[in-house]
Structures are given as structure tokens and as C-alpha cells.
């Protein structure tokens, strides 16, 4: 009998110290870091989470910006953020695998494995676009000109060592064309640069293209026609077996509390299953692509191998 009461006491202590702490989470707003400027695909994805998490998560999710260096400033901040359950961040693939691979030895910055995958949110293929005022009416016309005039065509991206950049490198590899990259801190800066004539083309996310007025899509890097812009020809049908896309999701800092990680993963799964949320995602030019933390981690590993192969082919890494 004494043993029985001792077990009850032990159980009561466990319950008293564990369950109330979990029940109180979250007790304050959760900060969601965006590593790019307002107005781009990452920002819109996070704003939708901020909006539709209301009513699912009892505390607000608050979007904050730490833009620069193609996202590297924000992701370096994230891995050093306080791991108390209240700091999370948006992560973009393949950006988060490219940057650590190409960072000079000894230079400070985040490592891909320091980012704990929380969930994948959206799929956003890469696309090559020009202004509607551009003399280039097709992918073939632009490529032929760029091949005949190496480096003369100025191409916007959202930063060096980003998904836009690797898409540009792959187009150069497949076609033999040579561009001059002009990096911008986000789609909200690159798009006006294209429309204003600062650059000749933009290696972009499709979500940025779909939100623009006055741009023409020349080729999209998907195997089949993309449902959100079915009139744009694919790289595949143009004769280049090139598929390139961004996956946007969320991650947490190292040593993030397991209980908070599990709570947020479950809550975000519910948010992402909401038909109104999915409609909002499509309205922002993005394709809903929810995956839990484990599946998102597998996507990160797959993208890491693809990026390593491309960088080796370019002679940028051994």
C-alpha cells in the first residue's frame, strides 16, 4: 500500500510540474522572422500564417524582418535566437543549403543543420521573366542574344547564393549563355528594377511574377505546365530538362523546446489544412505544400544534394 501511495505521489509531482507548463504555452506572442524585405514571396507566405493562425494559436504570431545578404542575415540571427519557444523563422530552399556550402572558410554564419525544420508551407517554381516592353518575346530570343553578347544581359536575382542564383547558373550551363547578375535584397526590389529598365531580365520566383503587372514569362522550370500560369512554356518543352523551385517553410533555433516544437507543428498543420488559407496562398501566387518537420527535413537533404552537384559542376566547390 505504501508503494502504491508513493507511486501516486510521484505521478502527482510529475503532473504538477509538467502539464501546467505545457498548458500555458504559448503565454506570449511568437515572433516569426522573415529573412527578406516586405512584399516578396516569403513575406506573403508568413503574413498568411500570421492571419490564419488566429483562432488556432491563442497568442498572435508577429512577423518581423531581418533582411539582407540573400537571407543569410536572418538565418544567422535565427540560429542564435533565444530558444524559449517564442522565436521561429521562415527558411527558403535552396538558399539555406547553398550559402553554407559557399561561405569562405572561417567566415561566421549559420549552418544548415542548425535550423530545425518545423514545416514546409509552399512550393514556388523558378521562372525567367522580362518586361512586356522588352524586345525579347521568347526564351530562345533572349538566350541567343545572351550567347552572342556574353555578360551584356543584366539579370536580376534576390541575391547571390540564393535559389534565383542557382537557377541562373543552371540556365547558363544548359544553354551556354552568359549573364551579368544584379542581386537585390528581395523580390519587392527586383521587380521594380525589371519594370523600370535597370535590368533586362529577372530569374524569379513564380509568385513574384504572378503579382506583377507588365511582365512576361519566358520559361518556367517545371516538368509540366504550372497550374497558376499555364500559358508560360516549361524549360522541358523548350528542350532543356531543368527543374528548379523554391520550398518555403519554417524552422526553429537549436535547442528549441520539444513540447513547443510539437505544439507548433500540430497547430500549423491545422492552419494549413484550412481551405480559406489555401485559397489565400494561391491568391498570393504560391502553391500550398504543407509537410511536417520530418518530411521537410528530407526535402532539405534532397535539395542539399542537388545544390552540391550544381556547385561542383560550376567548379565552385570540390
From TrEMBL:
InterPro entries per UniProt: BUG, Bug_dom1
Family of the protein in this entry: Belongs to the UPF0065 (bug) family.
Cleavable signal peptide: 1-23
UniProt source species: Bilophila wadsworthia (strain 3_1_6)
Stored Gene3D superfamilies: Bordetella uptake gene, domain 1 (3.40.190.150), Periplasmic binding protein-like II (3.40.190.10)
Pfam families in UniProt: TctC
Keywords: Signal
Name the UniProt record assigns to this protein: Tripartite tricarboxylate transporter family receptor
Amino acid at each position: 500500500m505504501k508503494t502504491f501511495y508513493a507511486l501516486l505521489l510521484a505521478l502527482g509531482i510529475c503532473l504538477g510540474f509538467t502539464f501546467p507548463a505545457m498548458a500555458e504555452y504559448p503565454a506570449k506572442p511568437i515572433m516569426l522572422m522573415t529573412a527578406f524585405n516586405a512584399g516578396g514571396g516569403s513575406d506573403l507566405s508568413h503574413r498568411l500564417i500570421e492571419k490564419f493562425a488566429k483562432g488556432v494559436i491563442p497568442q498572435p504570431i508577429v512577423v518581423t524582418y531581418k533582411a539582407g545578404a540573400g537571407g543569410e542575415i536572418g538565418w544567422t540571427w535565427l540560429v542564435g535566437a533565444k530558444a524559449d519557444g517564442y522565436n521561429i523563422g521562415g527558411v527558403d530552399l535552396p538558399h539555406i543549403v547553398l550559402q553554407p556550402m559557399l561561405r569562405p572558410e572561417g567566415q561566421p554564419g549559420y549552418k544548415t543543420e542548425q535550423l530545425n525544420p518545423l514545416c514546409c508551407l509552399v512550393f514556388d517554381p523558378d521562372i525567367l521573366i522580362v518586361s512586356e516592353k522588352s524586345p525579347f518575346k521568347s526564351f530562345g530570343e533572349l538566350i541567343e542574344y545572351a550567347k552572342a553578347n556574353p555578360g551584356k544581359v543584366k539579370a536580376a536575382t534576390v541575391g547571390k547564393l540564393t535559389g534565383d542564383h542557382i537557377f541562373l547558373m543552371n540556365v547558363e550551363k544548359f544553354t551556354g549563355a552568359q549573364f551579368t547578375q544584379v542581386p537585390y535584397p528581395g523580390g519587392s526590389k527586383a521587380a521594380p528594377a525589371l519594370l523600370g529598365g535597370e535590368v533586362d531580365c529577372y530569374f524569379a520566383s513564380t509568385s513574384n511574377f504572378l503579382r506583377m503587372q507588365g511582365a512576361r514569362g519566358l520559361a518556367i522550370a517545371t516538368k509540366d505546365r504550372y497550374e497558376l500560369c499555364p500559358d508560360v512554356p516549361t524549360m522541358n518543352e523548350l528542350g532543356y530538362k531543368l527543374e528548379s523551385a523554391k520550398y518555403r517553410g519554417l524552422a526553429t533555433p537549436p535547442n528549441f523546446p520539444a513540447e513547443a516544437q510539437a505544439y507548433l507543428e500540430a497547430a500549423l498543420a491545422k492552419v494549413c489544412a484550412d481551405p480559406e488559407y489555401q485559397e489565400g496562398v494561391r491568391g498570393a501566387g504560391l502553391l500550398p505544400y504543407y509537410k511536417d518537420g520530418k518530411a521537410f527535413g528530407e526535402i532539405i537533404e534532397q535539395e542539399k544534394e542537388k545544390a552540391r552537384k550544381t556547385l561542383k559542376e560550376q567548379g565552385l566547390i570540390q
